[in-house]
Design brief:
With about 575 residues, this protein is α+β, with helices and mostly antiparallel strands. The protein contains 21 helices and 18 strands. α7 runs antiparallel to α8 and α7 crosses α10.
Amino acid sequence: MLNRNKVLYIDGHEFRRLFTGGVDWLSQHVDTINNLNVFPVPDGDTGTNMLLTVQKAQSFVDKLADDHIGRMTETLATGARYGARGNSGTILSMLLRGFAQGLAACEVMDAQALSVACRHAVDYAYETVRSVMTPQEGTILTVAEAAAASVESLIQSESNLFKLLDAMIQAAGKTLEETPELLPVLKDAGVVDSGGAGLVALLEGFQQAATGEAVQASVFGTIITRQMSYSANGVAQQTTVTSPPPDDPEGYGYDVQFLMLGDDLDVAKVQADISAMGWSPLVDGDKNMIKVHIHVHNPAVPLDYAIQSGAQLDDIVVENMQRQYEAFASGSQPGHNGENPAATDDIAVIAVVRGDGLHDIFIEYGVTAIVEGGQTMNPSTGDLLAAVDALPNRRVILLPNNKNIILAARGAADISDRQITVVPTQSIPQGLAALLAFGDYKDDASWEMLTEHMHDAAASVLTLEVTKSTRRVDKLGDISIQDGDFLVLADGKASSSSADMFDAILAAFATVDLDQRELVTIYYGADVTSEQTALLIENLHAAYPQLQSEAVAGGQPLYPYVLSIE
């Protein structure tokens, strides 16, 4: 352990140990961070996305025998870049990448190097985000800026890294507590920024690992206690990340993820049983659906367990981490066999889609490949890269179809040596509109005009998404939401809420401009019957006889209806 009174520098080996402590501490607060999401809806979950991002980073260095801190942090950043999930995880990976670039030439990190690396991290993240969108203050970026500034303010008088880390935590925590004043939507929801909270937890984990002592006065815990005025049901179980045994002859093993579906699942039992099977467990869910993540040497073990428990399985993902590590060590990309398929100039379109019916629709409309994902299941940058690498096409268009996947898609475009354009679709209807435009213009338009037509088509569609609220929110925009209400989002913004689903949908229609709109396409989810949908169409026709309506079986989970208004 480090002597808190005199820590003048650390090497790569020590930084890896601190990073592992950060991952551990973050894992214990995933449920709390997830519950800070502004919208009380099933989302990509900030805490889960951040944890999976840093777990991937950790897997890249678990067996890296290198004391050079520049190379250690570069490898961590590479792992985070491939594992980046959701906006929060992707921005965290940017911070790690900038931090590593600031330490590239350093064998060890002293106070001056820490200051340079922190500033480089924040500047790189802001610059990268700014290239695709306007950065918002009151987010993880603001919290990271405060942490970096705290080091800069002390660098002339303080050389003890432990004291500088403590200053970073205090400054980040103070700014985290102020985020509701910087971002009104946080204030309305009564929460602090979830990404910023994840960063504070990660830094506190560094501190705990440095001393080997439990955090006595957690800045994170104090802020959350003051800010959170609700309790959530069916949230993630708190787990502790462990690592595979050192020098394990079986290597890194497999990253296994899947959903367990049932009527009366025992989350606590599943969490305990799954945790005993391997390392890096994450069990998140309720009695009807549990999301499982675990690293094991034999992927059949958790899968067989889930089947034997009587649950139905869905969204199964098994990744060979040993092959990913070997590919990285040899300089090739994870999931790539080192040889490109026979290249073609044809343009490929890859879409992120979830739901059997929606899969079929995208295939019918001409998509080249589908990456499984969406709400609660944000694919990583590495997942998207693997889909690109599996195709022979030199030019690829990515349709993320979810606002929380756009940055990960941009990351894939940055890493790949292919020509990739991300059309930033934020919903399934936008993705389908863009795909139809692709079919209309691909033979005649230039690359630039083709993607512009796809942008325009996506922007022309109005999307309503119907889901159930996961908690009470007294004020979100102009509406109040009760736990269990049906909540309708209009182009991603809270529009209406009601205990009755049809009332909520009709109320949402009343808030949108229907001029020039003619057609409503209703994609109904896995838990909705065609009879219920027929009744919805009757209600819509009675209220808006000028609109034509059609229903399509989408099969998407969690969102009983997704409506496209054109």
